[in-house]
Amino acid sequence: MKRKTLTQYLVEQQRKEQAVSAEVRLLIEIVARACKAIGHAVSKGALGGVLGSLESENVQGEVQKKLDVLSNEILLEANEWGGHLAAMASEEMETIHLIPNRYPKGEHLLLFDPLDGSSNIDVNVSIGTIFSVLHAPHHASGREVDEDDFLQAGATQVAAGYAVYGPQTMLVLTVGSGVVGFTLDREMGSWVLTEEDIRIPEETTEFAINMSNMRHWEPPVKRYIGDCLAGKTGPLGKDYNMRWIASMVADVHRILTRGGIFMYPRDERPSGKAGKLRLMYEANPMSMIVEQAGGAAIDGTHRILDVQPNALHQRIGVILGSKQEVERVRQYHLDAASQE
Ligand code: P6P
């Protein structure tokens, strides 16, 4: 049977459940097209003259890779003219990007990490683009949106998705009615529906965490990982496997595909107190995708999608994946809190 394309899927969603407005459908198709261009630039590697770092640093104080900046520009240019957005925000930009007055403005906000995992670019490991769509508040005064308009809890997201640039280039998307996956058909240049209903297994024996941070973790994380490492003879009664790609998109994609728990917890370092990953354009979109696929996503004790943001680039601890495993880690945090 002929597989559906992204356009067909979005048209059906628009007809079926009104889950997708015409504006959101255009938005997603434009972002998906921009991800094709990013994936093309990434795949050129050294041949494209885009590897390596720039002298500049981004708002996070991280050295920018050439591809970080190029990917950001691709997303900005692709989304400026369509009339579907009021503004954009990116990991690579300190402040929000308003749609220039020469273009019509829409009723949505787009947030993105244009190239997540960029420390892996030069070593040819899978990286990705993460995006989140919010409603743009309407101001009776007619004033432009501002940064505060972006500070909406993740539960209000209209859509979320990521592209993963790996052995296959894939687009994983939710518009609030489950999670679907598309594989890029490079010959036709189209996104083809290959995963109709992605579900995360509730149980797992695979954890993902950067073990080199162990001495900094809070007690419940140390206890949980210790119990995983104890295997069959330990309190969890089963042997665990470990994976850590250090590319959130790749680690989350694995978990969506075969289950697992991903952990980048806050820790006891001054730099780790709030966590490493960014709430608005990493944790929130990934949490919406994971929950829509039957998983769970917490910051240790709270559901990430319920967190009320107070800053555009704020960080948060992230524990997400197979529902039963995430619930176990949440219980370890509650036990620790009750003993304080
Ligand atoms: P570490 C990539 O830089 C990133 O933001 C996520 O994609 C990834 O999960 C994490 O940081 C890796 O961090 O400390 O293991 O290098």
Automatic annotation (TrEMBL):
Any one Gene Ontology BP term: fructose 6-phosphate metabolic process
Residue span(s) of domain Fructose-1-6-bisphosphatase class 1 C-terminal: 200-333
Co-factor remark: Binds 2 magnesium ions per subunit.
EC number, UniProt record: 3.1.3.11
Keywords associated with the record: Carbohydrate metabolism, Cytoplasm, Hydrolase, Magnesium, Metal-binding
Residue span, Fructose-1-6-bisphosphatase class I N-terminal domain: 4-196
Cofactor(s) essential for the protein: Mg(2+)
Binding sites annotated in the UniProt record for Mg(2+) 1: 91, 113, 115
GO cellular component assignments: cytosol
Residues noted as binding Mg(2+) 2 in the record, renumbered to the chain: 113, 116, 282
GO molecular function: fructose 1,6-bisphosphate 1-phosphatase activity; magnesium ion binding
A Pfam family it matches: FBPase_C
Pathway: Carbohydrate biosynthesis
Catalysed conversion reaction: beta-D-fructose 1,6-bisphosphate + H2O = beta-D-fructose 6-phosphate + phosphate
Binding-site residues for substrate, renumbered to this chain: 116-119, 210, 276
Subcellular location: Cytoplasm
Subunit structure: Homotetramer.
Protein name: Fructose-1,6-bisphosphatase class 1
Source organism (scientific name): Pollutimonas thiosulfatoxidans
Gene encoding the protein: fbp
